[in-house]
Amino acid sequence: MNISETPQQEQTARYGIDPYLDWLKGEGIPVTEDFGVDLFGVDTAPWPRYGVGGAAVHLKGRGDFANMFVLDIAPGKSSLPQQHLYEEVIYVLEGHGSTQLEFADGARRSFEWGDRSLFAIPLNAKHRHFNGSGTERALLVSTTNLPMVLNLFHNETFVFGCTFDFSGRAGRREYFSGDGDLITVRPGNHMWATNFVPDLTAIELKSWGDRGAGGTNIMFVLADGTMHAHISEMPVGTYKKAHRHGPSFHVMCVMGQGFSLLWYERERDFRRIDWKHGMVLVPADRQFHQHFNTGPQPARYLATAVGGLRYPTTQAQRISLLGAGGEDKPAVSKSVKEGGDQIEYEDQDPRIHRIWLEEMRKNGAVPKMEKFIPTPADLKV
Question: What distances in angstroms separate CA 66 from CA 25, 86, 100, one per listed residue?
């Protein structure tokens, strides 16, 4: 049988298409890409879709699932109304204002946010952000699953024009006032179900002993969505155990100062990223990473990703966050010696503790890790 070319086949073959990146080019906003990004320093430009300044941020480890958008809302201004089939978790870098929501049945909700607030837009709800200041800008950053959604449907009109009613995701009215429901699971997996957290520096966290050195955390279920979020804290003079997981976890400093080390198994060198409020990094797929507090106050960071404790999106994520079943620990809390993805203090590269101690000495900070890992004799005061 002879196969002849039709006029359509004579055209340039269409393959390897990334509808999300093609869409982004048409939006005309700046794109910042790196291993770590200071969100306060991201260049924005007028974004016609939103009517405010905007930019996209692509972290190297985001995978195929997630991205970030920065919205720079001028004093006294507001974004244009939006509605879309992708989910987003929004963190307020600076400023104060409000967000108004409208659902398919005509119901409306609104709430006021400020510095370090966290909230989610219920799926496909109409929404609009207002800057409440007449003199200062409001700077918001969102983590979204738009790349996954747009690449799946490759139809912009459907993603931004679908009218299907998902108002059941909104939950109780009190979820928009900072109220929520604590769902106890086990240390490291306790969940706070809500839509809005007024201040991430003030929310009470729960002990997570498996991650080491007195660390605490809480998982969020925001607007009953598939976007993951959790916040963790490292006490003064401590650091977390190294671990690894899948891609898309955007780690943003909320309070304090420190640094993170990233490396792949059997890789000799570390990639170091120093952080303070507004710095974000994303460990790549199966890349070990470890977070260190080097300042005089507890350090808190927010992690956002696609797929969470309630709705894992992959089997690997299910094992990482929930465990393989029964009483098995989640892989992120289980030693690599037992088939997990966490490196215990006694098994970590000796250089790591030295790097941290030297940084603590530079800052005049007091280490408090002696009961977990001995200080080398030559670094003792």
Answer: 17, 10, 24
